[in-house]
TrEMBL record:
InterPro entries: PAP2/HPO, PAP2/HPO_sf. It comes from hydrothermal vent metagenome. The keyword Membrane applies. Keywords: Membrane, Transmembrane, Transmembrane helix. Pfam families: PAP2 (PF01569). Residues 59-159 form the Phosphatidic acid phosphatase type 2/haloperoxidase domain. This is Probable membrane-associated phospholipid phosphatase.
Length: 184
């Protein structure tokens, strides 16, 4: 196994394990809306990273890593410093919503990297995740809105559009021209 493939597998493991940890502590047991939000917490980031992975989009993978880790760091730093009690009084880490920040970070990554038409389902799913967190009484509306803003901002800081067409000038002995390459 080459070094790059091993790195990809380790990043996938990190992504899935961190999201499973968040889903496991979310307290959605017995609540179908909350469980659906937990499933989307895994599905939306996996789709975002998986798209870059399967397109062999090296730049996209790096941009996803940066935005994912920035989002995770900012969200967790705020959770542990603000100490806001959850609506169900189960703990003091309500602000901001990690579920919402992770799903909006991933939706924004898809939108910035691959375009709106691919991101609309991810944004709808991320919005449902935010709703599910309020419905399950794990967050207040402001926790969810803050999570969405942090997630979107994290991706907007690091993500650039995926270029499917490149134009390169070419010069040789007595000729000038352009090379046009399209990635299908």
């Amino acid at each position: 196994m080459n070094k790059k493939r091993l790195q990809d597998i380790l990043w996938i493991f990190l992504l899935i394990s961190s999201l499973l940890t968040a889903a496991n502590v979310s307290g959605a047991e017995g609540n179908n809306t909350g469980k659906a939000g937990d499933v989307l917490l895994l599905l939306i980031p996996a789709t975002a990273y998986g798209t870059a992975f399967f397109l062999d989009d090296k730049g996209g993978k790096i941009q996803f890593y940066k935005s994912f880790l920035t989002n995770l760091g900012v969200t967790l730093a705020l959770k542990f410093s603000v100490n806001k009690e959850r609506p169900d009084q189960s703990s003091n880490d309500s602000f901001p919503s990690l579920h919402t920040s992770a799903t909006f970070q991933s939706a924004a990554f898809i939108q910035k990297r691959y375009g709106w038409k691919y991101a609309i389902p991810a944004y709808i799913g991320a919005t449902f995740v935010g709703y599910s967190r309020v419905y399950a009484q794990k967050h207040y509306v402001e926790d969810v809105v803050a999570g969405a803003v942090i997630g979107i901002f994290s991706s907007y800081c690091f993500t650039t559009p995926y270029k499917t067409v490149t134009v390169t000038p070419v010069a040789g002995n007595g000729f000038y021209g352009l090379t046009i390459k399209k990635i299908w």
